[in-house]
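Weekly sync notes, structure subgroup
Attendees: PM, AL, DS (notes)

Item 1: joint prediction request from the bench team. They want all two components modeled as one assembly rather than separately. Inputs as received:
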Amino acid sequence: MANPWRQRFLGWARPRAPEALPAHIDRHRVYVLPTPFGGFIGALLATMLLGALNYNNNPALLLGFLLAAAVHNSFVRAHLNLSGLRLLALQAEPVAAGTALHLHCLVQGDGRRDRPALLLDCDHIAAGAALHGADAQRVAVQWTPAHRGWQQPPRIRVQTRFPLGLAVAWCYFWPRAQVLVYPRAERNPPPLPSAVGLGSAQAQHGRGDELHHLRDYRNGDPLRDVAWKSSARAGQLLVREYEQPIANEMSLIWPATHGLAHEARISRLAAWVDMAEQQQRHYCLQLPQRQIAAGRGPAHRHACLRALAELGNA
Amino acid sequence: MRDQRLPGNIRTACLLAAALAALPLLRLTPLWLAALLLATGVIAALSSRERPWPLLLRLLLTIALSALVVIASDFRFGRDTACALLLAMLALKVAEVRGLRDARSLAGFALFATFAAFLQDQGPITLLLALPALAFTLDAFAQLAAAQAGDGTAIAWQSRLRSAGGRLALAVPLALAGFWLFPRMGTPIWGVPENAVSKTGISGRMSPGDWLDVLSDDSPAFRVRFDGPEPPRRHLYWRGPVLWNFDGRAWLPEQRMRSAKPAQLIAGEQRYQYELTLEPTEKRYLFALDWPLQTPQNGHLAADLSPYADAPLRALSRYTMRASSDALIEPQLPAAHRQLALDLPPGFNPRTRVLATQWRREGATDGEMIQRALAWINTDFSYNLAAPPLGRHSVDEFLYETRTGFCEHFSSSFVFLMRAGGVPARVVTGYVGGYRNPVGAYWVIQQSDAHAWAEVWLPQRGWVRVDPTAAVAPERVFERYQRDSGIGSFGGALAPMLNVSDWLRRGWNDLVLSYDVARQQLLLQAMGVKPEQSWQGIAVFVVVALLMLALTLLWLARRQTQPLAPVLRAWRRLVRRFERAGLARARHESARRYGERIARQWPGIASQIRSLSQRFTNWRYAQATLAPEQSDALTRDLNRMRPPHRASSQSGDVS
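Output from the run, pasted for the record:
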């Protein structure tokens, strides 16, 4: 379908607005069209029937009508494969905007028949399902949200080519639901801001002032780090090694991203949260109207990213 | 669409479906070609399993096979050539079936071959072969769709067959509504292309020795049902094309006769009425019992009273006719007709010409000429299908040298002799006699009943039929059904079967093949539709089709409950048996408790029922731990368990 047509169809297709769960597919909401293969068979059938009618070739006509009726029934069966379907629940683990999110759909048949060969999709990648009787099944449908925050998931298309592949029947679930989407993390973020209150110059040197230990000289070590007295004693060149005092608790603060655009600041903070989590450091997050006390671990990360996701637009 | 590679079993299913779909047409192609194409298909199927044949090889084979087919049909392009080409393409297509698209196009085009088969033969066997082809093709479609949906679970072939059969059965109501009521075309928009190689049959041309293939062909030419009295066997001359022109070698019809007004006919007392169902011949020749009193519905009578169809007969055609066996034909012979009926090519058969003039000089009248010729033929000639070939002076050679032959030789020579003697005469081709099928009381006339005889014109008597062959071998002509071939030939054991099978074939012709726009109108009239209002007919079709649709939808949309597991069904039956025997089971009662109560009531079977209820409980709650054989055994044992009869249970109590 050409894109403007597709948009027009989507504006008209049911459901036209998100709906409360559980959603039920009735016959008004199932659309059926021939597949390209169905079109091929249809053309073949039309030729055969026209020829048989022209020649009044009765056995050919009988066979043609038989095939036509079977094709027609396959359209009906494709329709029936979907009508009566239910979406009971929708659940999704939050991910960052721009990455694939799995919408876990709990779909159920109404027990009137088996429903094989269902394909569910949002974007492009379809997930298969086959329902037996009134069984419910969890299907993970991929969706790549573009924006952070609480998002309404798009329509989920369920389609089937059962039984003969001549017809494709499809319908839409559009659950009224809010799915949390984390902000997109900045791709190559600058290193984490160093501990609270440190001057910028020292932070740039990257060296602390507490002597930690001595080690062997390596090519390239600055000469001023060489511990001459100890070297003389030991008979070989030793170098002083300093330890940078790392703040156990670090603050990711909104003003630290000063100078960037609003969304870029959020992206950077989100990236820093991930970095801090990777480096297993305690961190707190300070946002204009919210503060999250220091912490670590998935729950803390979730709280931070959620706070970032929920930030208003500038 | 990404063209994924098909799993082997689905590819096999597609190839099988295509083979079945091609079978009806393959059956109708010449044997050597069918064998060649089949071999090509099988080799292609086996050798291309891993990778398709290279393009160059496919291209070369396509060209080679096409060339072979075209050469085999003598460079004439007809329906049969097209069918053979279609089969060749299908056989080669097999070599490149790997993915979904190839498999689908193969199965689709193979269906086309099934339809093409009906252009060649509309018999019940073709339809019987076509039905499984359709079922298997639908099954192949279903499997391809499942493969496309990524559902690779193999389904047992029994259940696949069942669902394919179900699909066809479900299509029947709608198909029948369409078949009977879909508006038919009165006249075709375009004609059926002809076959390059024609069937055997009366060809409108006769030269001695031509008809051997016709006379050995036992396929039916037409069937006749008389309405009222049936004529005696010796009057059963089915008159076809009349041949006027002799070119020294062959007898041919006179084209001017076709469009001229039929000759004057004064009907006699002896009249018959009959309905004739003619198998398709691709030609325009019709056949009518001597002498036709009316024109057939689908054709006209020529000036020599031979019936011709308005269009080549490409489908079964049927017409009713009246005949008068003792009619007077053309009492006044027009000069042009007389001249035609006496014309002989110069420079052929001098001895016969001399003989005829000599008979005339001896003072023979027209009638005596005929008598003398017949008497001579009767004494000195013999009937033999294995007649030696004749040279340039065919009549001379036959009359003076070989003196053995069959109807062509006799009629050709007789007419030549008559014309040479100044008696107007012509050759008539057609069929004689037939076989009366006691099942169904109708006549079937086979190709091997083909015959040629003569007609001579006599003053006051008009055209008179003279059959010189009958003078030699009347039993050959009239008792033809006792010959060594044909339906009646097997005598005892097989004859009833052959009778019934031909009767069935006739029923097929009546019920299926001859259903056309006229019969449809009759059917609609029976429903109260006036023929002049065509919208009513369409309305009837729509209403009936909708009814059938509703029926189909009801069936399709029915609740398809899960089939009960056999063990569960067996257990429920067992409970019902014991409830009938007087021990009701409470709804909350578990299987083991109910079993225990049974055991207490019937101590004779206590141990068995305890073990059974325990096994059933195990099955119910730990099914995964049981092997399928154990479940089957449980079903069997549950089904065998019966409550003991009152007497035996009492005796059990006593013991």
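Discussion: Residues 46 and 129 of chain A are 34 Å apart (CA to CA).
Action: AL to compare against the crosslinking data before next sync.
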